[in-house]
Amino acid sequence: MLNSNRINRGGGRSLTVQRNALESNEVIAKKNKAIFGRTLVINFLSSPGSGKTSLLESIIPVLKSEGFKSAVIEGDVETDLDKKRIDNLDIPAYQIITNGTCHLDAKMVNGSLGNLDIKDADVIFIENVGNLVCPTSFNLGEDMKVVVLSITEGDDKPLKYPAAFYKSKVMVINKIDLLPVLDSDISKIKENALSINKDLMIFETSCKKKQDGGVDNKGIEDLVSFIKEKVKLKADEFRKIGGNMYF
Amino acid sequence: MHEFSIALEIVDTLDENGYLDGVNKVNSVKLGIGKYSGIDKNYLGFAFQNLNDERFKDVLLEFIPNDSDEIKIEEIMVD
Is the dihedral of CA A66, A171, A113, A39 positive or negative? Predict the structure, then answer.
């Protein structure tokens, strides 16, 4: 109940609250986490155009070839273009169209789960709306946030959008194939990001499509190894406590 | 502008926990705002003014900065 209730000189009552402002989102995020169970859930954050969907197109086939099952929840303001690309990978995928809203929240993700076959999934990737600010505020029930930064965005972005880098466990520096033609300083990107979050794990990747239809992946194997390790850790943790970790 | 969603979340949290029972007007909301919370204080004020909730129409927001990534409702003043 209410912690205090005192009359002020102006005549109004002052009520001490002391609660998380996003409490109602947190309640649904906790329900999502319970539904996810043993499955690792990764929430991808980035600016528009950093290459989130391309990364998924590179990561998921490698995971698939090694027996790991993936599912994807796509967030987009207006279209299902990214979901159509993921459909080509022949895995369960669901598109959330936010109709102008600049982020996904726990309720949106909860609403998608009845429409997505996740019971056999080892990992669920949530591709958030492209935006380095708004999606950082909302817990979706994920195990980790991964921030993707393409080298074309400049080395100052971690300093300009610190929340995304502070709240993420991993930063993926993408499009490194463009380094030879840009003035980007990749060491400065890392230095700035680590000044916000010293525990940030960093991967460097590119997933450039070749003219023959193939993909010139760089750094994807390291990222996939990391994801596989986290999938196993989550499943082990879940097994140890008898599948009741979040209830 | 996710501040509109944050404003709605704040109202929900207050409503669901009984803080707005019998309240005609919320005069002020004191919020703890982490520097990594990703909140624009001016937009949050704008969002409250445009919630279409008469109780919050003239609300004043007071911010207590901290080093976290949280947004916490510390105190409200109501009529």
Answer: positive
